[in-house]
Specification:
With about 130 residues, the chain is an all-alpha fold. Helices cover about 65% and strands about 0% of the residues. The chain has helices spanning about 5-10, 20-25, 30-40, 45-60, 65-95, 115-125. The chain is rod-shaped, with a radius of gyration of 32 Å.
Amino acid sequence: MDAVFCFSCRHFQTDSGVEDSFRKGLSDWKKLSSKLEKHAHSQAHLNCMVKWDNYKVTASSGSIAAKLSRSHEDSVEKNRSYLFKIVDIVRLLSKLGLPFRGHREGSESESCGDFLEHLATRLGLWKQ
């Protein structure tokens, strides 16, 4: 095929009814430079160029959906780690027959119970 194509218009044009000689291929070589000039400044071509630029940015940095998915996976992994630590504490207290609650669990109490003490120790939390 002996024709000239516009890459951005061929791959990123979504408007139907827009002049698409460079999308399907321009094989009329008469006055080609003026046709190229006119096409390069057309709004349809400029829109396709913006879409192409956006595609390149997304391809290099990852899509928003992929970033959200990674963020969600990180959150799930962190929560899973917390849950395993809590289950370990419950198993330990159950195995040793120790109470979970203290006599008083207020913020001014020195002993908040075995569960909260272990939880604070294992998860790096401090009494508030």
